[in-house]
């Protein structure tokens, strides 16, 4: 069995059409059909059901497709890591972060790493937690900063700090002086993170509102914490955001009230690959863990 057999198989599995698959692979259809037959004979398993109208994967074919995709992902990861080892401490180092934790600490991290590794091109990406986990598993980033929980056997997690929550509101529209007045907000409209973008975080916000005795009227949703704060500033509602946002926001129109009564916090974690033992990764993680930063 050769890699080309697997590539040809994936092309047919994705297209479910031999003509389209052959066009995609820039080969004629007869050689493609022969390669698939050779593969099936070697595996002693029928991978496709073929008739005049359509091509379908058999149950064995569906299983094989899933495993072959994983195999190619691992090959890509191995290739990237091999290249990185060969480059030693040159090349790229990609760091992803969620919008709700960006601060001067991350800028300080890049400056610190550039001094230690001057030949490395450091890149920052604002990416959701779910996409960061996928990217790290596939070797597309070297480090991520997320809000836990995380469930992946391929990833190592380091707790950076725990964050509380605060109500954020426009001072010109709403008069709010203390946490005791939170229930007065039950008739207000809310701006929340999109449920599909950050499902765990969305659920936490609903739990917070339930604790204070009301269900929020969610009118607007956004995928970026800065967009949420801007919508609040524009008078389109109020929101609940991580408390560290208040430390980085000096806008006189925006007010924050920390929710201290409820014992609910989120873990902000640094994630790396379990297989990554590079000096750059160790230096980056140690810098953040030793920095008080947002804590």
TrEMBL record:
The keyword Transcription regulation applies. GO terms for molecular function: DNA binding; DNA-binding transcription factor activity. Residues 1-58 form the HTH lysR-type domain. It holds the Pfam family HTH_1. One of its GO terms (cellular component) is protein-DNA complex. The keyword Transcription applies. Keywords: DNA-binding, Transcription, Transcription regulation. It comes from the Bacteria. InterPro entries: LysR_HTH_N (IPR000847), LysR_subst-bd (IPR005119), WH-like_DNA-bd_sf (IPR036388), WH_DNA-bd_sf (IPR036390). Belongs to the LysR transcriptional regulatory family. This is LysR family transcriptional regulator. It comes from Flavobacterium panici.
């Amino acid at each position: 069995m050769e890699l080309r057999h697997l590539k040809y198989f994936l092309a047919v599995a994705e297209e479910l059409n031999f003509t389209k698959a052959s066009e995609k692979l820039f080969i004629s259809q007869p050689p493609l059909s022969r390669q698939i037959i050779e593969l099936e004979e070697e595996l002693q398993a029928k991978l496709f059901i073929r008739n005049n109208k359509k091509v379908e994967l058999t149950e064995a074919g569906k299983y094989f497709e899933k495993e072959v995709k994983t195999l190619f992902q691992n090959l890509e990861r191995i290739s990237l890591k091999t290249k990185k080892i060969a480059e030693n401490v040159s090349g790229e180092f990609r760091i992803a972060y969620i919008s709700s934790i960006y601060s001067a600490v991350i800028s300080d991290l890049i400056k610190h790493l550039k001094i230690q590794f001057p030949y490395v091109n450091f890149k920052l990406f604002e990416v959701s937690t779910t996409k960061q986990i996928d990217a790290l598993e596939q070797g597309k980033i070297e480090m991520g900063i997320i809000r836990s929980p995380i469930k992946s056997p391929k990833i190592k997690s380091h707790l950076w700090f725990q964050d509380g929550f605060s109500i954020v509101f426009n001072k010109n529209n709403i008069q709010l002086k203390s946490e005791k007045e939170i229930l007065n907000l039950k008739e207000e409209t809310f701006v929340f993170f999109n449920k599909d973008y950050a499902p765990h975080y969305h659920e936490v916000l609903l739990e917070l509102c339930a604790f204070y005795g009301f269900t929020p009227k969610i009118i607007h949703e956004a995928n970026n914490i800065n967009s949420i704060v801007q919508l609040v500033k524009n008078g389109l509602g109020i929101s609940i955001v991580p408390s560290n946002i208040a430390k980085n926001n000096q806008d006189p129109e925006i007010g924050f009230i920390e929710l201290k009564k409820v014992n609910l916090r989120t873990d902000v974690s640094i994630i790396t690959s379990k297989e990554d033992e590079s000096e750059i990764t160790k230096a980056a993680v140690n810098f953040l863990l030793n920095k008080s930063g947002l804590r």
